[in-house]
Specification:
The chain is 64% helix and 0% strand. It is an all-alpha fold. α7 crosses α8.
């Protein structure tokens, strides 16, 4: 079965469960998420997790909001039992609340990125808080709760948080000089550029510009929602062959009838699929983030962070 056939089959199975009230772009992105992570969609398990969430979360909890399909799917691809996965996510969110994180959708998304080992939580939360504080020194008003997931994700990486925040600021300013538009998406892109190193690398901005302009020439959208993915491509220092593969994969997926009106949804999927065979731990961890960027964008317009619940699974399989 081809990748496109797998995407279509998974989409049809998901749509049956999600119904017609969920935006088609969400279902398409979720289908790509499962296929990229090489996980078979299991309707019974999905419904079991969904039911546990609805029974465990309050009526106004973000877990029961328009992001519900996202939370269910990210827990679904984990290796935990349905009830255990839901309870652990809620426990992580409560730990964040106790550590004075403001409770909203971003807090739960940050919780998805925390390790399952409870002993690591205090350190993870402390590093995320410190990175947020360091980021605010440069972008006081732009840095807010929507940065929680990225702060949790990047805070766990090696390197000094103050240096990483300073590097982010340099990237942000330099990218604006190359006609990347300022705002949340550019801030997230500048954060992504520190993914493989907290040290400033002047070549990364040039890489990002070349990638953006290259995508434009083949008529792939490079507006603000695509900034974080462009950032990943630059940070991972993808070569010409890898970038060409992403474009080829994108064109194949975008040509499907399912994507007729939603071609922009094909780029995160193409990125994840093209990196799937990589043995680089950075690349394998990025897959989970990249494949759900479009999903989250559609679920909440101002949001361009990602789920990383499956990162440990993807990373471990990539290093075997």
């Amino acid at each position: 079965m081809t990748v496109n056939e797998k995407i279509e089959r998974t989409y049809n199975a998901l749509k049956k469960v999600l119904g017609w009230t969920v935006d088609k772009r969400v279902a398409l992105s979720l289908a790509g998420y499962y296929v990229t992570l090489e996980r078979e969609f299991n309707e019974k398990r999905y419904n079991e997790i969904s039911t546990h969430i609805k029974n465990s979360a309050g009526m106004f909890s973000p877990l029961r909001s328009h992001l519900h399909p996202l939370f269910v799917s990210t827990l679904d691809v984990s290796d935990l039992g349905a009830e255990e996965a839901v309870e652990l996510l809620i426990e992580k969110a409560e730990a964040l609340k106790a550590a004075s994180f403001k409770m909203n959708s971003y807090t739960y998304l940050a919780a998805l990125m925390m390790a399952d080992d409870k002993e690591t939580w205090p350190g993870e939360m402390k590093r995320a808080e410190q990175l947020m504080a360091d980021m605010k020194k440069h972008h006081r008003f732009l840095t807010s709760t929507d940065d929680y997931p990225y702060a949790m994700f990047l805070g766990k990486l090696d390197g000094d948080s103050a240096l990483r925040a300073e590097t982010m600021n340099k990237y942000y300013k330099e990218l604006k000089d190359y006609k990347f538009y300022g705002g949340n998406e550019l801030q997230w892109m500048s954060q992504v550029l520190t993914y493989t190193s907290p040290n400033y690398e002047d070549s990364l901005v040039q890489r990002a510009v070349i990638i953006r302009d290259g995508l434009k020439t083949v008529k792939i959208k490079t507006t603000a929602p695509q900034y974080p993915i462009i950032g990943f491509m630059a940070a991972l220092k993808l070569g010409e062959d890898q970038l060409s593969e992403i474009v080829t994969t994108y064109e194949s997926i975008a040509s499907m009838k399912l994507f007729s009106w939603y071609k922009e949804s094909a780029l995160p999927i193409a990125f994840g699929l093209s990196l799937r065979s990589s043995k680089d731990i950075y690349a394998t961890a990025a897959i989970s983030m990249a494949t759900s960027l479009e999903l989250i964008l559609q679920a909440q317009q101002a949001m361009m962070i990602s789920t990383i619940a499956a990162t440990s699974v993807a990373a471990s399989s990539g290093t075997n």
